[in-house]
Amino acid sequence: MLLYVPPGGEPALISVPRDSYVPIPGHGSNKINASYSIGGPKLLTRTIERNTGLRIDQYTEVGFAGFVNVIDAVGGIHVCLKHPIKDHDSHLNLKKGCQTLEGRDALGYVRMRKADPLGDLGRVQRQRKVVGAMAKEAASPASIINPVRYWKLANAGTDSLVVGDNATMFSAMRMVIALGKVSSGDGLTLTVPIADANANTPAGSSVLWDNAKAKKMFDDIARGDTSGLKKFAK
Questions:
Q1: How far apart are CA 74 and CA 77, in angstroms?
Q2: Which of 30, 125, 173, 176 shows the greatest Cβ crowding within 10 Å of its Cβ?
Q3: Residues facing residue 12 across a β-bridge
Q4: How wide is the angle at C-alpha 19 spanned by C-alphas 18 and 21, nearest 5°?
Q5: Measured between alpha carbons, how far is 111 from 123 in angstroms, rounded to an integer?
Q6: Other residues' Cβ atoms within 10 Å of the Cβ of residue 35
Q7: pLDDT tens figures, 142-160
């Protein structure tokens, strides 16, 4: 995911499907998640920059175990499901309606793909919602006032977060605040415009971007203008 915080206006959280088929610097074309497997965060960042025309100022990574710990530290996240979900691969058996998901169920919820008719595109929508909700809870006054919650959250974050060399406490807080705004509806949630969600490529079934629309979206972001991004909201 890309988080863009403009000088003014609404922040935007943009999902980049992991199966996006794109050029990877020095390694031909492949699914975008292959860049991480080949060269870790640095190559992933270079790949994102090359294909979007944007400069990535800060990298943050949350491991699976850390994700579970952070969700548990804030007391779970609240979701409302239109339909029950039963998915063997992600060990999910969730009822229809509103409920609080603890860490392991929240992880299964964001990782699930096979039980979602939208596949990877449905998964990125769930990921944005959960990450936004997690940030909102982490930034709430209860995280400071409640000493037990503060201790759990501080330890979960320390053990599970990987950040780039240029990250600072200020930039991390700016990121959390922006994610909280997105979760509260004061920001934009987007997916890179897609031309084909199930294209046959040398890397197997892949996601192809709509290059013209994607360029327009990223050009707007590069100019610091989020006013026209709502048409890409998904």
A1: 8
A2: 30
A3: 4, 188
A4: 120
A5: 7
A6: 26
A7: 665 666 665 566 566 555 5
